[in-house]
């Protein structure tokens, strides 16, 4: 039977593609103070440092390849067997490269740029710099189109509506420690499923669970649905 499915993906989905999470011991994050590179205040103090950090992340993402979990989720969406809304906390474009469409990026997109002066958005070059002019207003106020700590995630009404009305809400590869994403399971009215490497901080809030590497567990789950 066709279902309306809302899927939230987190860093655990892209980790197997070589993109680190906040908690990786030797990852890119550990080389920077997040207060300096992932907050509006840090950007105001030192835009060069912020761009250096995101240029490095962008290079990492461009060099990465989507994995079997990304491919399986795109196949689920493309199959037409179910109405699938794909929501991600990730800022990479690996879902899209795997073939997914209409992905809701609640924390922004690494491959997009934003003008802090006029709000214009455009495709980011591989390397961004503080002196780059906005193509719309020419102000040298360009920044990555990323939701930083202290900022409101994008598309909250849209994604909350998708979760509330879904027959099935699935959280994949998320630690469930960062709100508001961690609270989405609380507004789900249908069945809920957690797919993760290990139980998350909110595991008890889900009806059912599947644990193991996303590249193994997600394709098996999708195969059963289509």
TrEMBL record:
PANTHER family assigned to the protein according to its UniProt record, in alphabetical order: NAD-DEPENDENT PROTEIN DEACYLASE (PTHR11085:SF4), NAD-DEPENDENT PROTEIN DEACYLASE SIRTUIN-5, MITOCHONDRIAL-RELATED (PTHR11085)
Organism: Yoonia litorea
Family: Belongs to the sirtuin family. Class III subfamily.
Residues annotated to bind substrate: 54, 57
Gene: cobB
GO cellular component: cytoplasm
PROSITE patterns reported in the protein's UniProt record: SIRTUIN
Lineage, broadest ranks: Bacteria, Pseudomonadati, Pseudomonadota, Alphaproteobacteria, Rhodobacterales
Catalyses which reaction(s): N(6)-succinyl-L-lysyl-[protein] + NAD(+) + H2O = 2''-O-succinyl-ADP-D-ribose + nicotinamide + L-lysyl-[protein]; N(6)-acetyl-L-lysyl-[protein] + NAD(+) + H2O = 2''-O-acetyl-ADP-D-ribose + nicotinamide + L-lysyl-[protein]
Descriptive protein name: NAD-dependent protein deacylase
Cell compartments where the protein resides: Cytoplasm
